[in-house]
Design brief:
5 helices; YebG-like_sf; Uncharacterised_YebG; YebG family protein
Length: 103
């Protein structure tokens, strides 16, 4: 029986083949949680689920968001267009290794 090393993110239980991807995912989830808390504190009337979705969406697009904040607001729309064309949102979830029992 072979032993396979995997890294598990304690925030959501996602499994990864390497430590770098696991740490990147964990940092993204931490950013999402902080954005969610910021929205909840500053905007009344937004549901908890909506806050979490917004926080996760912004955290996943943090590089493009940073470009937009630095003077390229059109980068947000360009990134959205390219995501729709290439399906790169699915690529994010492809880094997660499914946990299989009894292999």
């Amino acid at each position: 029986m072979a032993v396979v090393a995997v890294w598990k993110c304690d925030r959501d239980g996602a499994m990864f083949d390497n430590k770098k991807d696991a740490e990147e995912h964990d940092k993204m989830l931490e950013l999402a949680a902080n954005i969610t808390a910021l929205i909840e504190r500053n905007i009344d009337g937004v549901s908890e689920d909506a806050c979490e979705e917004i926080g996760l969406m912004l955290a996943k697009r943090r590089e493009v968001l940073a470009k937009a904040c630095k003077g390229k607001p059109e980068a947000l729309l360009e990134a959205e267009d390219s995501n729709a064309e290439t399906g790169s949102e699915q690529a994010d979830s492809e880094n997660v290794t499914p946990l299989a029992a009894n292999q």
